[in-house]
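Holo prediction. Input below; ligand is S-adenosylmethionine.
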Amino acid sequence: MPRLQIGLWETSVANPAASFQKGLLQRDETRIVQGDAFDLINQLAARSVDLIITSPPYWGLRTYKERHNWDILTEWKRSRDKPTSIPPYRWYSDHGGLLGMEPFPEWYVAHMVEFFDSARRYLKATGSLWVNLGDTYFARWASIRDRGRQGLGNNPRERRRVPMGGFRQEKQLLLIPSRFAIEMQERRWILRNDLIWYKPNVPPRPEKDRLKLSHEHFFHFVQRPTQGRAKYYYDRSQAETGANDVVTCNVRAGQDDHTATFPEALITPRILSSSPVGGVVLDPFAGTGRALAVASRFGRTAIGFELSSDFVRAARKQLARASD
Ligand SMILES: C[S@@+](CC[C@H](N)C(=O)[O-])C[C@H]1O[C@@H](n2cnc3c(N)ncnc32)[C@H](O)[C@@H]1O
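Structure of the complex:
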């Protein structure tokens, strides 16, 4: 059996800290590992991944049933002479902060680029990064639910007061995907496409003074080389007919109690065009493992990280079904 030098081997799910030992991942193997992507990413071997494709938690919408420290801003202010600065992710997570629940969009963008700065070390020079992100409207009193701000019925919610100031004003569309993409460009990432995912089946909204938000962004980044122009693996014949940067695709009903599952029709052309057969595909915020299942079905080695043990369990079931 050929082996890839990925240096990742899961030995136990019960104790994530002890669940790795440096080892080898077998070709064609699919793995989802429970834990914080910011830690797990550093278990990979340098330059071992062909494609990172992911949809991180968006800002200010869902907790995915994980616990968050709602007093984290107060704690940060107390601990600092300069409370206007942004805590690094390590401080934030050590103090109970969840990615996506940062008190300010600026903290979230900083943490996201911090993650992709680390991830860059594990991506091959010819590799690609696809990041799916949706936007958020600012509300001074935000409703944050286990499964999303727009969750209906008895989906439990947390009300939090978000400090206003600058662009953070009532009713404002925050342009978080753009803020993230611009910050990535500042960090030597080359943006190749801002693919718009149009979602024709988004449910009606009660607001009468604006249009429905019915698209998300799917950014394609590659690495800026030290010299010359970026060269990376890409097979455009695997993209949709017409190879346009707007893709229409229905939102799927969540799977296994997850409300933000990737539609296969959206990710399959990305995986096929941006990674070679036999390549390694990583989804660091894997949810129920849809990207891993697709990658593996098309002959890629797939690795996923996921914080929630419930979703990891669901992903393992999905991957087992896919390999039957
Ligand atoms: C938008 S969802 C991804 C859904 C996925 N694309 C799918 O098809 O199921 C984001 C996921 O990131 C997970 N997550 C949040 N913070 C994380 C972290 N620090 N490390 C790893 N996973 C995290 C959440 O539990 C959630 O399942």
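The chain has one domain: 3-323. That is the main takeaway for now.
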